[in-house]
Amino acid sequence: MGTMNPHRPARGETTQSRTAQSRTARSRTAQGGAPGEDRRRQERAHVRQLKLSLLFTGIIFVAEIVGAAFTQSLALFVDVGHMLTDVSVLVASLVAAILMQRKPDSRHTWGWRRLEVVTAAGGAVVLFFVGLYSIVQAIMRLTGAVADTVNSPRLLLAFGIVGLLANLASIVTLVGSHDDNMNLRAAFLEVCNDALGSVVVIMSSVVLLCTGWDGFDAIAGGVIALMIVPRALKLLRDSMRVLLEEAPAGVDADCVVEHLSKVEGVVAIHDVHVSAVSSDLVRLTAHVVVDGSMTVAESADLIQRMTTCASEHFPVSIEHCTFQLEPADYGKECETHRTM
Ligand SMILES: [Zn+2]
Ligand SMILES: [Zn+2]
Ligand SMILES: [Zn+2]
């Protein structure tokens, strides 16, 4: 049936590496290893890394509470509030990473893989408001609307240095996997924000000690917030993209239709949906019109070729496909769906 119509990936499509997930997908294929085992190893590493960075952050958190209570430093009390958001973002990321290790069951048929997107969205919102708050604070302090709170520069310097060391340790722990999924991205963004914050604390306490000028703290704090807010918004946008079931970056539904239509034996394609369950699992469903005389063996072969097309011909590998084969005169209900 049909003429010979071999189809190949569009030029350049599989050579460019637009996203981290396409890199992991391809390296998995290249190694020929079981992707499930790879993923489980990666998930165990994520839990370990998040536990470590939570430990570092937790130590500073406790130290700052003790320091703030001991010295009655308002600046430290303010930073304790900030640390509380750090700890909660990291705890949420850790809980998500632990739950994501669970296997699918009859209630959670995808496992908990979508959870990374939810924690990333939550972390991004928290970071966004922390950034916004810092900008407002900076403006208010610079305009004199709020009395400056830096009253113990030496202590501030000491905690700045300790905090920076702890945050650098967290960065080193997470840097290898911050592109693996959105959950890790949120945690990494959080510790980067903190490290920059520690740098500001150190610099402003040095400036305060040397010159007595206390405006530096507000300016630098505002600058960091201006750097973090766009990243938080991008993370929020990326996670909303998954939550709204949009086609992931690197997969264009029109392109998928064009490809699948060229697979030998396909008469037409409609009702195509492409979306991501999580940052490393893209799914595709499509209705495929075939010749009514097709045998079961032929249709099995067709499904195999379409699955190969979906998993190999796009910058992001589509790993979960569901194809509904139907004869050309199949019932009217399909007309109610969007035809692509
Ligand atoms: Zn193809
Ligand atoms: Zn399935
Ligand atoms: Zn249909």
Automatic annotation (TrEMBL):
The chain crosses the membrane at residues 50-70, 82-100, 112-135, 155-175. It is found in: Membrane. SUPFAM superfamilies: Cation efflux protein cytoplasmic domain-like, Cation efflux protein transmembrane domain-like. Residues 1-43 are annotated as: Disordered. Belongs to the cation diffusion facilitator (CDF) transporter (TC 2.A.4) family. SLC30A subfamily. Residues 14-31 have a biased composition (Low complexity). This is Cation transporter. InterPro entries: Cation_efflux, Cation_efflux_CTD, Cation_efflux_CTD_sf, Cation_efflux_TM, Cation_efflux_TMD_sf, CDF/SLC30A.
